Structure prediction request, 488 residues.
Amino acid sequence: MQKHNQKEHLYKLLVIGDLGVGKTSIIKRYVHQNFSPHYRATIGVDFALKVLSWDAETVVRLQLWDIAGQERFGNMTRVYYREAMGAFIVFDVTRPATFEAVTKWKEDLDSKLVLPNGKPVPTVLLANKCDQGIDVLMNNGIKMDQFCKENGFVGWFETSAKEDININEASRCLVKHIIASESDPVQSIEPDIIKPHLNSSKAVSCSACFKS
Amino acid sequence: VKRYIRKGIPNEHRAVIWMIVSGAQTNMEQNSGYYHRLLEGEKNDKLVEAIKTDMNRTFPDNVKFRKTADPCLQHMLYNVLVAYGHHNKEVGYCQGMNFIAGYLILITKSEEESFWLLDALIGRILPDYYSPAMLGLKTDQEVLGELVKMKVPAVAELMERHGVMWTLVVSRWFICLFIDILPVETVLRIWDCLFYEGSKIIFRVALTLIKQHQAFILEATNFPDICDKFKQITKGTLVTECHSFMQKIFRDPGSLSMATINKLRETCRDKVLSQG
Prediction:
């Protein structure tokens, strides 16, 4: 039944991060509700579509771009990033180097892509493979909250594609921020955006997205 | 010899013929012991780490590539890639090479021969696809775009209208040389020609896939649709019947001289470079 005033949003989302952190697995879990330990390395880029009934009036179509993690493919990412509305940056909690690369991915993203209002695209950080029990950094959540604020993430989640943990939640968090950023063009004329070093008090995410 | 190779090398002779026509045999004989010295030498940790990450992600469905297999092709694959990364430091390791080396190991069943065949492909037969700048890859994607403009203009027009960059739909064709895109037997037949006739064959295959499915591709009405169509056209009877497919690739795209390709490569390379 076609509702008269139903709104439809189409968002392109990027899924990026170092190689082998589980980007493809997260997307397959989210879109196809399954998991295999036998996914092959992604070459170039792959796509998947997910349709969400956001609320009674809104349908959200997500176009998920699964981008190969090896640095040299990054040469082509400017093309892939174009017109994206949000991003997940993924790391593997069992491999510290993949967390260290997170800021590099975020900087790369922000340097290649800004929203029409000049702001960075909403980005959620995913600490994947949390089922492995080898947490290299989760000594406490507060540090991660701090890390996210300092680096401009709108939220973070411990995820497991294998055990289906927090992937839907992370996606809802990201979509919520995208919708908010879309309906808030006024922000672009607020004065503090020309002083980005002061933005930590203002560019705050909804705290509901942070784990307590 | 060309006709014989285009008709397909019998599998039991494949390794030998590939080795001879590619020059890998000569290189191996002139550099006796080199491969083993590479494996014994000092290793670059970062390179080794990247290769290790892909070990369980190379042909995971093939039991011969499981960690526990005997003989352990995964271990052979690891050695070939590590040796190659230290031999060709400029390229190091690029994802995609794992699949190519895997096929070479399946055919030759020899690490050393696979190493020299990989060197023939990456060092001589293919343009610079795998180095960090991937300039040869970006160039050849553009070259394909130009060839499609000439030979299948309606598809080129569709791509342009919807803003679909060629790299989005064909980068895997070039990087993986059709592995996991076309059926195994078809890939091997293509490689027979690749080793003997060179990289031009890749354009012939790509153009045939596009031309044969022109009407199907043109049904697409939006961006994701187009991407999906390009996944579909690598399936079906056209590609599973590898004998008739091989005949088609030499007939369908029409004439395709190396001079044309070289000229296009030159102009496209300049274009890619100017885009930064």
About this structure: Strands of chain A lie at 7-17, 45-55, 58-67, 86-92, 123-128, 155-158.
